[in-house]
Amino acid sequence: MYPPKTEQKESRGKAILLTLSIGLSFTLWFVNQLGRDYQTVLTFSYRITNIPSNISIENRYANLSFLVKGKGTNLFWKKISPYHDTLQLRYHHYFHLGYILPKQHKEDFRAVPNDIQLLYALPDTLKIRVFSNEWMKKVSVKPDLQFNLHPTVRLFKPISISPDSVTVYASSAAQINSLAWIETEQITTPEMEDSTVFYVPIKKGSLQVVPEVVTITAIPEKYTTIQPEIPIIINDIPNGITIKLNPPALKPQCIIPLKQYEQSQNIKMEWRISYNSLKEGVPLIPNYDFLPDYIQVVPPYESEVSFIIQSESP
After folding, report:
1. What is the CATH number of the domain that holds 60?
2. 220 exposed, middle or buried (CB, 10 Å; 0-12, 13-18, 19+)?
């Protein structure tokens, strides 16, 4: 048995009226709340201008966050707006202290509405790095890393350092002139089996360095061992001369990347020496530079090769 249609219409009307009343009440409450004073954090991008030609600033373009106070309506629209004007901060000598003093720049904050009060800047956004271009130098980076490798892998390729050089700012000409390169902080790696990337700080001491961190990439590879027989060949031997070598061939123990084993079997390895470079009584010292880069000789191996020069009888 359904209720009469008149009762249905009355119930629906009461529900609509109740909904409108609640919505109106909430709107009035919300508008009333927006009329009050609130505190919140606003972040502005800034740009430092009027920088002297002998000065460099690392974070010339960055962000500055403030605790602000203002009416809810002003803060609400400023907060939800995806666009904030950039603060134009004029260079000042106190930037050398390492931070921005926002109170000194009130006149530069045209991007902040007059009806919003800046209470103070958040300390972690105040930092700034100012360098003098008078004593600066670009130097190479030397890694100070102790690699721990899994027993099944070796490093066959040089490690990659990015960037491989940094800009250093010193406090005196003597300090910058004596600097030929700069080292990273010392790091001992965990046991490595696969390609690994490390983010390593520069050991800067009292220097200022840009950037302060470099990326080091190491690529260990699985390996196997080979022991090739490498003949020693003397070039340009004059007629009537014979040379006896001891040993006549090198047989070093080598390791190579597993993926290049087959390739190594097809390579002709020879150690060629010019006859004119021989000095009687001075043994030959193998350096194995003639081997491909991916082949590494491991000790023990022949450290010297003796020889005897003989003249054939007429």
Report:
1. 2.170.120
2. buried
